[in-house]
Amino acid sequence: MKIAILGGTGSIGEGFALRWALKHEISICSREIEKAVKAAGDYSGTLLSKGLLCCGITGCSNETAIGDADVVVLSVPYQGVVPLLKNLRPYFKDQIVISLVVPMKKNKWFEFTPPKQGSAALEIKDTLPESVKVVSAYHNISAKKLANLELSLDYDVVVCGDDEGAKRTVMELTKEIKALRPLDGGGLASSYMIESLTPFLINLAIRNGLSNLGVKFV
Ligand SMILES: NC(=O)c1ccc[n+]([C@@H]2O[C@H](COP(=O)([O-])OP(=O)(O)OC[C@H]3O[C@@H](n4cnc5c(N)ncnc54)[C@H](OP(=O)(O)O)[C@@H]3O)[C@@H](O)[C@H]2O)c1
Fold first, then answer.
1. Candidates 12, 84, 104, 212: which one to mutate for ligand 1, based on the most atoms within 8 Å of Cβ?
2. For the whole model, what pTM was predicted?
3. Which CATH number describes the domain made up of 2-208?
4. Cβ of 61 below 6 Å from ligand 1
């Protein structure tokens, strides 16, 4: 598959690129082409240094990769995602769009700050053409752990979406990341529950002297 990672130059974009490049063609997308090309080179170098063969990681502008992609990952902070997608809307047709976006802010502690739609995923769905299949996942996965290829991520990933085929595709992509277990979380309307867990997990970690907490249902 062709996977475009918008904001792929950032913290969690790196982990997805490293993990999925073993089986898929990855485009690292950025608002600045030079930044994307550099990140793509760095990630390819990381895989090469570990003796891992990848299907190709290319750096490009946000605009270039979307039209050609099967899957577009939104790996951009909440504050920037809707303005960015409004500009990029003409490049979307019927791709699967994965939102891992968490609307939150820090006061004394981290707080969930959903938009009027109830979740970032529903606001993103409202912003993109109707033919795009928005799936919500990975909100509770630590960027640091995802980028560490030595680690098995013994966590659950709740996947929400209204298009069953798109949701299945994202669940299959999740299984390709060592030890992650995808769980069907129902429709996109359920996304707020899993988005709101992220600030809660960060506060739990701070209060209890822990780091990079994830979720596992037993
Ligand atoms: N970090 C985590 O552990 C984690 C875990 C789960 C979910 N998430 C979610 O994943 C998303 C990305 O998180 P992150 O920590 O990777 O973020 P980040 O490193 O702060 O930013 C990722 C990339 O987004 C682009 N960006 C930044 N501000 C932007 C703006 N105003 N408009 C458009 N693009 C902008 C930048 O790329 P360019 O400058 O190259 O365009 C940046 O490299 C967030 O929505 C977050 O809630 C993060």
1. 12
2. 0.98
3. 3.40.50.720
4. no
